[in-house]
Each structure stands twice: as C-alpha cells, then as structure tokens.
C-alpha cells in the first residue's frame, strides 16, 4: 500500500467498553502506522453494566494479545458455560442454553435428527444429557475446553463473567502502554467538510479541536457522531422486544459461584444473576408499559442473596439499531450503533464483531463507499439474526399470567423467525447460515426449552439401524457423565490456577 493513501489518524469518541476495546484492537493491529486518539468525558459516565459474555471473546483476546490470567485477576472474572433460563416456558420450567455442541456433532452429522428418531421410540435420554457444558454447569464444575483433536472436552466451550468497569480500566492501561493518546474532554459539536459532509474534527468544551481522518463513535446511546452529527436515524424494534428499562445493583455473594448466568422470567420482564469473584451482579429488565419502576426495584432488592454493595443503577433504552452503522467517515461501535437487551449477552460480542469487521474493511484515505456498504450489510445481518433469536425466548411461551406475556405470545413476529420456527416444528430442521452468531446448539436449546417439539424428523433418518443408534447414544451418555464427574469445582479451579481477583471490593 502506498503510505500517502493511508488513514493517518483515527479518533475514538468514548471511553466505555466499546471505546477501549476498539482502541486496544486498532493499536494491536496497526501499531504506530496509524495514530489513535481516544476522547472521553469525565462528566458523562459509562453505562456501567455489561458483565456476561459468549465464547468468541476468547478469540478477541487472543487477537489483541491479552493474557487470560492477567485479565481474569484484573476484572474478578469467573467462567461461564451458558445460561440457565428459569420460568420462561411456564412459571415452573427450567432449561439450560449451553455453549459447545451437543453430542459429538462433528463425528455423526445430524446428531439432533437421530436423537429425534430415538426419542420417538422412547430409546434415548433427554437432549440436555448430551451437552458437556450443561452437565458441568449443573454441578458447578469447570475446566477449559481441550485443544486435543477428537477429545470430547473440546466441546466444553466457555466465556466469562467480569466487572465491566474494571475491564475498560484494564484495557485502558494496555492501550496507553501501546501509545494510544487519551484526551479527557466533553465533545460539544463536530466540524464538517462543507463539500462532502465528512466529520473533520471534534470541538471540545475546552475549545480544543481534535481532528482526524476516520471517527469511531463509541459515545454510547447518545450516538454523538453517527446519530447527532450525521443524523442517522434509529430503527425501533420495541414492538418485538418491548423491554425498555433496567435497574441493576451488585451484592455480596452468598450462594454458589455458578459457572453460568441465571435469567429468571418475571411477570413484567426478567432478572439476571451474574456471579463474579468479588460480588454478584443483579439486574431487572422490564418495560415501563408493564411495570412501574418501583415494582421492578422491589423485585430486584427482594431477590438479592446478600447485602447490596452500591446504589441502584437505572438505565433506559430502546431495542433497535442505527439504520446504517458506518456513514461517511464515521463508524459506530457499541451502544452508539444500537442495543438489544442483555438476554443472551450479545452487546460486547457486537462490539467485537464490529471491530473485526472494521479491521477487515479498514479504508484508505479515499474512503471508498463500498467498504461501508459491505460493513453495513454484515452488521445488519448480524443484529437481525440475534434479534430473531431473542424474540423466540418471549414469543414461544406458555405463560399468560400477565399483560406482558399475553402480548409477546400473540404478537406478530418477523417472517424470518416465523419460517425458522415452522421448519423446526415440522421436521426438526434448522436453516442457519454459517456466519450466524447463534448456531444449532443455541437454537436447539432455546426451541426445545421454550416447548417447541418437532412433528417428525427428516425422512432419511428412518433408514438407520435403530438398535445400533440407541447403543451409540447410551454409550455416549454414560461416557459424558464419567468425563464430567472428573472435572474440578468452578471456585476451586479459579483458586488452584492462581486466578484469584487482585481487585478491591467496590
Ligand atoms: C441493562 C444492561 C445490561 C447489559 N448487560 C450486558 C451483558 O451482560 N453483556 C454484554 O455483552 N453487554 C451488556 N450490556 C451492554 C454493555 O453494557 C455495552 O455494550 C458496553 O458497556 C458498551 O457500552 P459503550 O462503550 O458503547 O457505551 P458507554 O458505556 O455508555 O460509554 C460511552 C462513553 O462515551 C463518552 N461520551 C458520551 N458522550 C460524550 C461526549 N459528548 N464527549 C465525550 N465523551 C462522551 C462517555 O463518557 C463514555 O466514556 C448491557 C447493557 C445494559 C443497558
């Protein structure tokens, strides 16, 4: 590449999780070839939540050169093997959405289809018995996934729960050591190139002008650059995902250090429990159409297992996204690009995939619009797929004990989701594209957990020898139980591997 065609300077607005993750990844990728400046306000806070992740965070950390043990100690992180959903199908139901595949999907294709055939004949255990993550989580056991080819423990995929505030602080240290410039200041307005409308600089309250070639909007829900300076509209999805409020509070840990998140459905929304090493994160997500703030806060405080450790953090949001995520020379990453409620812990993942996409389509100084088009197309597909997955949790329910559940159960859902549910209901098949974030493990867990039972299986399944299949499944079930029984306790694993938090309590 000819040096004078490079983007020389990238300006990131915002010092929350999105801002520092972006700065860490760009500084790792470009070194000193691109100047990186991060501007954040010390008057406007960060959103202050965001503690549960999904497995690709591990790849991201490898990609940006983060040492796992150092990160765990710095953020008080614990491990996560999936999410337990309580009360989502009906008030007494529980199911687990695990990471890692069910069974040995790669060895015998159509693992779920063969299982369906055996299930019809009453010759096989529940599908959840074939997930190592589910079995380990049930007993609070944990070990990292094996990297040995053919080892079933390859399927013990995991992510982390961590302290989001500490995470941003930790990444900030990494970035500053790598030469990222850090400015404290409130952006009041953007300056534009009068010919093409591109942003040329950020005017700060101090009077300083921070100029750049490419601007990354990580300013949170305010979307100061993409939304306010460039006027890109917000697409509102609250008719499908009506939750629009959250209240959150950390508390002392009194119950087990579970290697999973708990999501408990309530009459007006749902509640999370996320255990960290030094505290437990709790929150209630609800809609002000179906509950008062007082009722949600009462539910939050009544459900705490220990003393609260901070005041309640109250957050308002609207489910949806910016109509384009990259416009002119501004790319929005994090809450500035949109938000879906944290039901499947996807926001930090969206930050990560946006960063990877930005690096893939990183423009030269000509800013060819085709780069933005490719970026926007992929970003749209990603968030729409996740949107459908979240809607499934609400729509496929037996609950009708409150106005919220009656609404979501009967609402019209996107055609893309309707089609997917119908195909599964008909013959247990899933039409998932390779690039989708949630693959068959996730859809199987939630479709079955939410009570959708396939009418039959694919016709080719009837050609198999049932006795041989039944034998293979029962051997596998026995083998999985044996493997899991040898795993260490989650809390003991953290201690024995010297991953204990180096942080003070909040
Ligand atoms: C209730 C709730 C629970 C969540 N739980 C999860 C979860 O479990 N897992 C997950 O992956 N995600 C979760 N998220 C999402 C997650 O919190 C965010 O995706 C993540 O923190 C990124 O936020 P951000 O950096 O985009 O924005 P913010 O944290 O809001 O940061 C914005 C930054 O912009 C700066 N800024 C704003 N305006 C200006 C200005 N004018 N001048 C200068 N600086 C400015 C602020 O100072 C701040 O530094 C949750 C979100 C909510 C609301």
DSSP strand tally: 21
Bound heterogens, unique: flavin-adenine dinucleotide
Distance between the termini: 48 Å
Please state the average pLDDT score.
95
Quick one: CATH superfamily of the domain at 3-51 and 164-235 and 319-384? FAD/NAD(P)-binding domain
CATH fold-level topology of the domain at 3-51 and 164-235 and 319-384: FAD/NAD(P)-binding domain
- Architecture per CATH nomenclature, i.e. the level-2 architecture of the domain at 3-51 and 164-235 and 319-384: 3-Layer(bba) Sandwich
Work out the helicity level. Answer: 25-40%
What's the main sheet like? 7 strands, mixed
Determine the number of helices (DSSP H or I, runs of at least 4 residues): 15
Q: Can you tell me the residue ranges where pLDDT is under 50 for at least 5 consecutive residues?
A: none
Question: Please, could you describe this protein's structure?
Answer:
- The protein is 35% helix and 19% strand.
- By secondary structure, it is an alpha+beta fold.
- Among the domains are: 3-51 and 164-235 and 319-384, FAD/NAD(P)-binding domain, CATH 3.50.50; 245-316, no CATH class.
- The strands form five sheets. A seven-stranded mixed beta sheet has the order 5-4-14-15-16-13-17.
- Helix 1 runs parallel beside helix 9 and helix 9 (347-360) packs antiparallel against helix 10 (369-395).
- The longest helix has 27 residues, at 369-395.
- The model has no long low-confidence stretch (mean pLDDT 95).
- The structure holds flavin-adenine dinucleotide (FAD).
- Flavin-adenine dinucleotide binds at residues 13-19, 39-41, 44, 46-47, 49-53, 164, 186-187, 218-220, 222, 224, 246, 248, 283, 315, 317, 334-336, 342, 345, 347-348.
């Amino acid at each position: 590449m000819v040096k004078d065609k490079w983007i020389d300077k990238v300006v990131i607005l915002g010092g929350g999780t999105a801002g520092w993750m972006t700065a860490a990844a760009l500084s790792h990728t470009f070194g000193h070839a691109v100047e990186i400046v991060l501007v954040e306000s010390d008057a406007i806070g960060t959103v202050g939540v965001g503690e549960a992740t999904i497995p690709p965070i591990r790849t991201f950390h490898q990609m940006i050169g983060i040492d796992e043990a150092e990160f765990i100690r710095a953020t008080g992180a614990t491990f996560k093997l999936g999410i337990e959903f309580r009360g989502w199908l009906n008030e007494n139901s529980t199911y687990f959405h695990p990471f890692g595949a069910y069974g040995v999907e790669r060895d015998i294709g159509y693992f779920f289809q063969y299982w369906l055939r055996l299930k019809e004949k009453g010759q096989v255990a529940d599908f959840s018995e074939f997930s190592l993550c589910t079995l380990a989580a049930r007993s609070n056991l944990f070990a990292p996934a094996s990297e040995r080819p053919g080892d079933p423990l390859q399927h013990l995929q995991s992510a982390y729960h961590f302290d989001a505030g500490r995470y941003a602080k930790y990444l900030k240290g990494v970035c500053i050591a790598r030469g990222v410039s850090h400015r404290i200041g409130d952006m009041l307005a953007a300056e534009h190139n009068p010919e093409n409308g591109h942003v040329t600089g950020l005017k700060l309250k101090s009077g300083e002008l921070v100029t750049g070639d490419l601007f990354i909007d990580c300013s949170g829900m305010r979307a100061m650059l993409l939304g306010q300076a460039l006027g890109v509209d917000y697409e509102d999805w609250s008719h499908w995902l009506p939750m629009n409020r959250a209240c959150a509070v950390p508390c002392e840990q009194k119950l087990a250090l579970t290697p999973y998140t708990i999501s408990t459905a309530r009459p007006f929304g749902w509640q999370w429990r996320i255990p960290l090493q030094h505290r437990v994160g709790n929150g209630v997500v609800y809609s002000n159409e179906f509950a008062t703030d007082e009722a949600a806060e009462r539910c939050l405080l009544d459900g705490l297992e220990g003393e609260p450790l901070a005041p309640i953090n109250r957050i308002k949001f609207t489910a949806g996204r910016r109509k384009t995520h990259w416009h002119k020379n501004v790319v929005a990453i994090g809450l500035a690009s949109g938000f879906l409620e944290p039901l499947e812990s996807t926001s930090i993942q969206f930050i990560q995939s946006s960063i990877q996409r930005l690096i893939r389509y990183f423009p030269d100084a000509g800013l060819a619009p085709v780069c933005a088009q490719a970026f926007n197309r992929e970003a749209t597909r990603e968030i729409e797929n996740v949107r459908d997955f979240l809607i499934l949790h609400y729509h496929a329910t037996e609950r009708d004990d409150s106005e919220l559940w009656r609404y979501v159960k009967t609402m019209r859902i996107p055609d893309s989701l309707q089609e997917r549910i119908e195909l599964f209901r008909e013959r247990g098949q899933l039409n998932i594209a390779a690039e989708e974030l949630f693959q068959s493990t996730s859809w199987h867990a939630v479709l079955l957990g939410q009570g959708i039972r396939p009418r039959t299986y694919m016709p080719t399944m009837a050609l198999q020898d049932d006795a041989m299949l039944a034998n293979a499944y029962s051997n596998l079930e026995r083998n999985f139980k044996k493997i899991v029984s040898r795993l260490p306790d989650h809390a003991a694993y953290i201690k024995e591997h010297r991953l204990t938090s180096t942080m003070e309590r909040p």
